[in-house]
Amino acid sequence: MIGELPKALDVNGKTYAINSDFRNILTIFEAFNDSDLTNEEKAFVCIMRLYRTEIPSADIEEAIRKAYWFCDGGDMPKTKPEKVKTLDWKHDEQIIFPAISKTAGVVDIRELPYMHWWTFLGCFGEIGEGLFSTVMHIRQKKAQGKSLDKWEKEFYNKNKELVKLITPEEQAEIDETEAVLKELI
Questions:
Q1: What is the domain count for the chain?
Q2: Are 25 and 57 in the same domain?
């Protein structure tokens, strides 16, 4: 029906209840971004976290397809994905949640007991001006090799840690350095 938010997915003619809260999907995305996990392990995490009941092995492949469809926003029109990553849910957490909270008209969405993933995506898509938009705009310009305006250069120079995304390789180096330092202490 038009306007309903799915709280269950049909898989091979069977209906399975899902955990549709935005926090759960963001946890699934953390697994998707974990370079230590294989694609099969990522799919397993997705299935185990999204579906509220065990999925029979005969339905796993279709359940994964439906889970990815749900996490991707369903039939929502898609924009062509960036070749260069410009958003990291974990890195950008402290600027994403205030922006979405403002869009949703609440103090902090993290304090809500529940928000459907698609509602979260809708609020995310409606983010207007502000810190998050500025950071995304600068990242996109840099990813496209475009020159930054004077005010953007100043913002970037003052906020490099906020704007610059760390690659998995850089994060591995940081983790290795931190591990060595912990051994020394």
A1: 2
A2: yes
